[in-house]
Specification:
With 212 residues, the protein is of the alpha/beta class. The chain has one domain (2-211): 3-Layer(aba) Sandwich (Rossmann fold), CATH 3.40.50. 30% of the residues lie in helices and 28% in strands. The protein has 6 helices and 13 strands. The chain has helices at residues 12-21, 32-37, 49-58, 62-71, 80-83, 189-211, and strands spanning 2-5, 26-29, 40-43, 75-78, 88-89, 103-107, 118-122, 125-126, 142-146, 148-152, 158-164, 167-175, 178-181. Strands 2-1-3-4-13-12-11-8 form an 8-stranded mixed sheet. A 3-stranded mixed sheet has the order 5-6-10, with no helix packed on it. It is globular and about 50 Å long. The model has no long low-confidence stretch (mean pLDDT 94).
């Protein structure tokens, strides 16, 4: 079972429906024990960085997330769920992120050919293979809606980038059992569903290895 963390952010139901479409069981919850017992966890959502961090704190989820991280539970952040993993964001000055990954979140710089927010389909530049991209080919298309992007301090943690004018955006990051994407797999057609299916397969594999 995959736990989708419910912390008052938008778009979480879309992720649940996407998992239903591929036949994967999930539960939308903020209950600590349910989250900690899940085979894998997804932190989705849209919204502002500062408000999202406030909601995580208000719902008592900070320690739960840290325990997931230390336990190595497969984890997937989506959109704001990626940004929250970093240290800070230009969107909310003075607000600390979860600090699971080194780096910061920056505002997309508008230019003549770059509109903010960045909305639409892009083909990320894949820097190296990853289990979540298995079966997706060299140039899958994904759907984006965002005004801020991650700038990872550790290049080895960047799986894929999108170059938008002068904005060099890290849109897919990984550190061990922690993955995060800036795009919305739940809105990215077959490619997005395949990515979610690959994540579910990783969750099952890790759960079975723990039992063994």
């Amino acid at each position: 079972m995959i736990a989708i963390i419910d912390y008052g952010a938008g778009n979480v139901e879309s992720v649940r429906h996407a998992l239903e479409r591929i036949g994967e069981g999930s539960i939308l919850t903020h209950e600590r024990e349910t989250i900690l017992q899940a085979d894998g966890v997804i932190l989705p959502g849209v919204g502002a960085f500062g408000e999202a961090m406030r909601q995580l704190r208000c719902r008592g989820l900070m320690d739960t997330l840290r325990k997931l991280r230390s336990a190595g539970t497969p984890f997937l952040g989506i959109c704001i769920g990626l940004q929250l993993l970093f240290e800070k964001s230009e969107e909310s000055k003075g607000v600390c992120g979860l600090k699971f990954l080194p780096g910061e979140v920056k505002r997309i710089e508008p230019q003549a050919d770059v509109k903010v927010p960045h909305m639409g389909w892009n083909q990320p530049e894949i820097l190296h293979p990853d289990p979540l991209l298995e079966g997706l080919g060299d140039s899958p298309w994904f759907y984006f809606v965002h005004s801020y992007y991650a700038c990872a301090a550790d290049p080895s943690q960047v799986v894929a980038k999108v170059h938008l004018g002068q904005n060099d955006m890290d849109v897919f990051v990984r550190d061990g059992s922690l993955w995060a994407v800036q795009f919305h797999p739940e809105k990215s057609g077959e490619a997005g569903l395949k990515l979610l299916k690959n994540f579910a397969a990783v969750c099952r594999k890790e759960a079975h290895s723990d039992v063994g």
